Amino acid sequence: MSLDQPPGQQPAPQQPSQQQPVQESPAPVQPVWSQPVRPSRAGPIVLAVIGIVLAGLALLAVFLYLTTFLGAGALLVGLILALLPLAVVLLAVRWIDRWDPEPRPALIFALLWGAGISIVTALLFDLGVQITIAASAGALTGSDFASAVIQAPIVEEVAKGFGILVLFWAVRRHFDGPVDGVVYAATIAAGFAFSENIQYFGLAMTEGNAQGLGITFLLRGVFSPFAHVTFTICTGLALGLAARRSASKGGAVGYFLLGLIPAILLHALWNGSTFVLSGDASVLIYYAVVQVPLFIVAILVVVFLRRQEARITLRRLHEYSQAGWFTAAEVSMLGTGAGRRQALAWGRRQQRPKKLAMRLFIADATRLAFVRDRLVRDRLVRGQSTPALHAHEARLLGRLMNHRADVLGQVRPGTAPAVP
User: Fold this and answer.
1) InterPro entries, per this entry (predicted)?
2) How many other CB atoms are found less than 10 A from the CB of residue 145?
3) How many structural domains comprise the chain?
């Protein structure tokens, strides 16, 4: 294979004509190429900046709060230790998100939401409970069990889950299915666990017991870095199904509430174990018998969903191939793991423009496949699809033709071909 010839590349397909019928999908969606494509507006960018700034300020407030009773030294030690499990979880999230990467600003917002806004929400609710108990003049009493097994799971999972719902509303164009829900949920949960771990590690540090700090890090940083992730992805999966079924923004609330039920129950089960079990041996047995199987199930679900994403990509790109947009070899290159690895390996041996063009070719082809999938599903559910999705499809197809020209070193096409 020549280094100047990308893997699987064949001569560009002939543009479809009226004499070349387009193979219909189970629910045919005819692109509306005649509609003008509106340029991107600054509104979404401004909203993203505002959201990230507000969530960042919430995280700053959490740090200030922790400093008041931990001290700067213990806070710093807790922060450094908390970064280790955070890095492990974020690496796992990156692996899950490799097939169809989510927008970086959305992921930053998700992390800050979990570490900042969710923590602030839980703290304010707990403060409200304490004030209510104090104002009751003894009529109400606090309970560690009620706080850990009832209050914390409900408040924390609602706070984290609402962040996923906000992302569903804000970046709906990029929220395509269950894997996206898992990615956003895991990122929010990782942020929440990060701030929570700073508190636990910092408290162990202030007690001046190195053994206690080591045990705390072992339990939270080694044994259970994915505990919050396992709880919250239930809500993410539910909202991902809402996206897959083309639910409206209002209809997604029902899926959100449905996903909260298992998230809260799993969280309560985890917290409740500390009140039922006693001794290190009992905790380890519970961890091996209950938490490890749950974690394995979560891994299997994620692997299944990733493979489903690959199947959707391959099927939808094949439909464009039948219309003449891609060759069969290009579909194999863009829609299979082996094809992508070969294409990226080829790109790494090229100059930077071609390397970048190949990456964008793969990324935009994946987005196109999921836009097509939403168009088909919208037609099945509502009997029609939105003009905005058609415009997005047209924009992606135009970009893909430019990426192909850049990969091949050809002159970019002036206009995108039309599909009859």
Assistant:
1) PrsW
2) 12
3) 2
Residues 215 and 364 in one domain: no
For residues 174 and 79, state if they share a domain: yes
Residues 242 and 354 in one domain: no
Instruction: Round the average pLDDT of the chain to a whole number and report it.
Output: 85
Residue 9: pLDDT band (50, 70, 90) is low
140 and 195 in a single domain? The answer is: yes
Q: Determine if residue 176 is left, alpha or beta; phi over 0 gives left, psi from -120 to 50 gives alpha, anything else beta.
A: alpha
Q: Is residue 229 located within the same domain as residue 319?
A: no
Q: Can you give the pTM of this predicted structure?
A: 0.85
How much is the pLDDT for 279? 59
Tokens of 339: 């094809």
Residue 192 domain-assigned? Answer: yes
> Is there a domain that residue 413 lies in?
no
pLDDT tens, residue by residue, 361-420: 999 999 999 999 988 888 877 777 678 888 889 999 999 999 999 998 877 775 444 443
Are 118 and 258 in a shared domain?
yes
Q: Are residues 268 and 329 in the same domain?
A: no
pLDDT band at 7 (very low <50, low <70, confident <90, very high): low
Instruction: Give me the domain span that covers residue 387.
Output: 313-408
Q: Which of 124, 117, 109 is nearest to 59 (CA)?
A: 117
Instruction: Answer whether residue 174 is part of any domain.
Output: yes
Q: What is the pLDDT of residues 204-260, one digit of tens each?
A: 988 877 788 888 898 899 888 999 999 999 999 999 999 988 788 888 999 999 999
- Running DSSP on this structure, what letter comes out for residue 16? P
With 70 as the cut, is the pLDDT of residue 20 above it?
A: no
- HSE of 342, CA atoms in CB hemisphere, 13 A: 16
Whether 367 is in a domain gets the answer yes
Q: Same structural domain for residues 357 and 236?
A: no
Cβ burial, residue 367 (10 Å; 0-12/13-18/19+): buried
Count of positions (residues) in the chain: 420
* 3-class secondary-structure state, position 279: coil
Residues 6+ apart with CB under 8 A from 136: none
Joined tokens for residue 400: 């893909």
Distances from the Cα of 149 to the Cα of 126, 141, 145, 168, angstroms: 13, 16, 6, 28
